[in-house]
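Ex. 9. Protein: Exocyst complex component.
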Amino acid sequence: CRNLLPMYSQQCCFTANHSKLLSRNCTSSSCCCLIETVSVYDGEEHSRFMEKLEARIRNHDREIEKMCNFHYQGFVDSITELLKVRGEAQKLKNQVTDTNRKLQSEGKELLVNMEELKQCRLQQRNISATVDKLMLCLPVLEMYSKLREQMKSKRHYPALKTLEHLEHTYLPQVSHYRFCKIMVDNIPKLREEIKDVSMSDLKDFLESIRKHSDKIGETAMKQAQQQRNLDNIVSQHPKLGGGKKIKREICASADLEIKNTSPMSDQDSGILDVEEEDEEEEVPGAQDLVDFSPVYRCLHIYSVLGSRETFENYYRKQRRKQARLVLQPPSNMHETLDGYRKYFNQIVGFFVVEDHILHTTQGLVNRAYIDELWEMALSKTIAALRTHSVSNVILFLAFLGYGFPVNQLFDMLLEVRDQYSETLLKKWSGVFRNILDLDNYSPIPVANEDLYKKIIGQFPFHDVDLEKQPFPKKFPFSEFVPKVYNQIKEFIYACLKFSEDLHLSSTEVDDMIRKSTNLLLTRTLSSCLQNVIKRRNVGLTELVQIIINTTHLEKSCRFLEEFITNITNVLPETVHTTKLYGTTTFKDARHAAEEEIYTNLNQKIDQFLQLADYDWMAAEPSSKASDYLVDLIAFLRSTFAVFTHLPGKVAQTACMSACKHLATSLMQLLLETEVRQLTLGALQQFNLDVEECEHFARSGPVPGFLGDTLQLAFIDLRQLLDLFIQWDWSTYLADYGQPSCKYLRVNPTTALTLLEKMKDTSRKNNVFAQFRKNERDKQKLIDTVAKQLRSLINSHHL
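Predicted structure tokens for Exocyst complex component:
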């Protein structure tokens, strides 16, 4: 037994090893199996291993047989159904083959007809294309024919316009045709032809005005002399009645001074015929004697052709040559008065023409060019007259009304006057800046009657309601109003003091004072006011006070008119009296202040909106509006309370502008790209803020609005929020585009943008968590609404 026990245990060990080996062969890699198999063959247990292997194979065969028996009936059924399908498929194939054969036989005639129709359509398309090409070519040919007719009739400027239309509009449409290429090649030649013809006309014009400059000057001086005589007669006889008696006196006076007019040719180009049939007939203006159309036409032509600089240089060069000829005195000029008269007439006629060209063309001649010629004329004229006493002849130049000085003394006085005026303007600019900088921009308080009368004495102001109020009380304007008004009067006094040494008539003094005062108002004071308005640290209260101040200064302009009339004794009804432009200055300043108020209000609103901190993923809204919006509304209420003294339209415009800007900013805040997701709770919180804005609009912060006019500024936000909160998509989609639509102001693009943000939130955070059972249906509804909105957007764009 002791000998058998080890043998049995060894056999059991071998059997267990064989089982492990088979298991490893089934589950392990090939390399491991190979090693195990070699170890079996190297030992003495090969037969036992084979028996175990056979047993394992039989076991697997039984399992395979069981599995096949289990699935065999399903396999047989599938094969049976497949055989049935093969039969039906063969029948279907035969039916399709028969149908195809019948269709081919029936469609032969249709194919023939279709081929004929194709040929007809091709011919029709070719005919239509030919007609279209001819219709494109006909306008080109018509324009070219029109161009040739205009060239033939010497209408060169219209011809140039026609040529430009032909080149840039018509020829590019048919540029591939041969005849069009010929036209294109001919266009530069036509332009050069137009330039040559227009230059020829200009040369004729220059030659004509050179010949007749003495007649032009004579007429201009005669007209200026009549005007001076008229001023003298009116100043001496202010109540003299009208018309013909004054005219006869003027004409008689002019005839004593200007005689022996030189004969002129009536057929020279550029000079119109002037007949003096009746001594009562008014003398025509110098510009009425000259036909400047050749200059304008040539200037336009050269400008269009891009050669304006060439034309300007040529014109100025030729006129300089003519100026030297005109300024060269004749050798026998000193012998007779007519020689002086003709000499001066030519000079005056030359500068009358140049002055007219300066004021009727842009850049052909400039003030520097005219001044250069005048300085040359003045020096040569003074040199020619230095050895002879010609006071009677120099008198003629004093009547010239074109702004050219007549001698060095008068030139010096005018220059000093202008320099003095500029000095005064610079001085008062500093005065105004100092007044505006030191002002407190608050209404002037008065505690007693003496102080009240003092302010009234400094500034013309009358208000019955203010007079009835008890002391202490306040003027509506600040201190700079009476100060500025008094400084304007001081400036007028300074101008009057200087004019006393110029030996001018009262009308000229009045005109000088008014012009200087206009410069003070429109340039100096206006610039100071604009600088104050545009300062960075200026507040809304200061801007409101500036508007009130400029309103009162504007009303005081008529008192300044009366003040000037009283010190110059020139009635405002005089024809040549210059009007003060103070009202325009103060209106512009007031408008600038109003615009600055609107801008500052919008900037303040933007600053408050920067404090907005919405939780776009909030599940539930809070019970009140956001703190930043409550503060913003409080700021707007306090601001508009200051606007009580402003004109109604200004306050209303500011309030409406602020509400519109607030509504627009809130809409942008809701739709900005950084807000990728939002919940219904966040939208309801946003709705509370919009309701706060609407409550502010309904409360009437500024009087004068009709009904809910101010509330309409938030109508876009209101309809958008109602649509989403009430989820009333059926009404919106059904009534979209109708005038009576409940959500008329809701843009489908805006709605889609907001819906996409809520859709993303619904997918991730379950916006509609309270409807979890219907969550899938709700998501389908959102997708459906989004699809319909896209359809609306696409149809609108189409």
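Check your answer against this statement. The chain is about 75% helix and 0% strand.
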